Amino acid sequence: MAENRDGQEKTEQPTQKRLQDSKRKGQIARSRELNTMAIVLVGGAAMVGMSGHLGQGLSDVMTAGFTIPRADMYDPAAMLLRLGSAIQETLLVLSPFFILVVAVAVISSVALGGITISAEAIAPKLEKLNPLKGLKRMVSVKGLVELLKALAKFLLVGGATALVLWTTLEDFIALNTMELGPAVTQLGRLVGWSFVLIATTLILVALIDVPFQLWDHKRQLKMTRQELKEEMKDTEGRPEVKGRIRSLQREMAQRRMMEEVPKADVVVTNPTHFAVALRYDQSRMSAPKLVAKGSGLVAANIRRVAQEHDVPVVESPMLARAIYFHTELGDMIPAGLYLAVAKLLAYVFQLRAYRTEGGMRPDSPRDMPIPDELQVPEKD
Hints:
Blueprint: H1 16-24, H2 32-49, H3 51-66, H4 70-73, H5 76-109, H6 119-122, H7 131-138, H8 141-173, H9 180-220, H10 225-236, H11 239-260, E1 266-269, E2 274-279, E3 289-295, H12 297-308, E4 313-315, H13 317-326, H14 338-357
Parallel strand pairs: 1-4
Antiparallel strand pairs: 1-2, 2-3
Helix pairs in contact: 2-5, 2-9, 3-5, 3-9, 8-9
């Protein structure tokens, strides 16, 4: 089982971050056997399919190259022009074949790990020159698999090549009896089929190599439990830092909420456990809005701020608990509490009139109509 430098076993599957980091460094799964097999197989098939075009084109180039006027033979400049023309014509004939092979080489090389460009992968690393690490790679599981693949390729490709030469030897010898054009076409066809037959033996090697490369790549990226913990801390943040951030967020939210208390029309209390602050603007709101709520010390702060800014504080335990548990901060009160809050606001408006104009002080509202589904019993 894989181990890290500290001797800890790598038992955990790689995380998404680990996979992304390895890809950025150029550490991706690659199969040279898949690449070789695809190039040889498609190249051979292309030779067979394009044998007529290639044979005719190359025979025309050779015919033109060996048909030289006497005057040109003694003119170096003319011979250079003919050579350049022959090279150009040859490239034009072979270009479709070369383009196809290059395209297959690129596609097969990125088929497993995808396309990645990494400066770290091409940067020189002195550790690769360390003979001890090189020896360690040779005696590893991957080194043993590479040795077995090399032996398998030698036996399979060698056997297939011998079989192809044995069965096509007479066809190759017969080429010298054919005219140039047909001979070149037949040569391309024979070579193409030879490559196709040899490539079929490489399919077996590729079928073994591709799963192994995927398995080995994932094995190398496995993590120890300690590495997984450290990455989770780096990714999600250390617990103490996250706790401090949450604490600061709560403090900021409470500070903003306390700034809304002086703007409230009334604060309803439990009287000590809960406190809720309501505001109602008849011209802008369809129902009273909860602007602050809290329990314990937060409730005490709400009452203190309300008293400092002359906001009426009314004791109504059932209504306070109903609003606290059934209304989110910033939302309108439930429709079932409209009647109770209307009686409360009526008292507040009468209290304001009493404070400014005098007269008889209004009595605090009692027996608030709270629907059964919104009642919250007080816990002992």
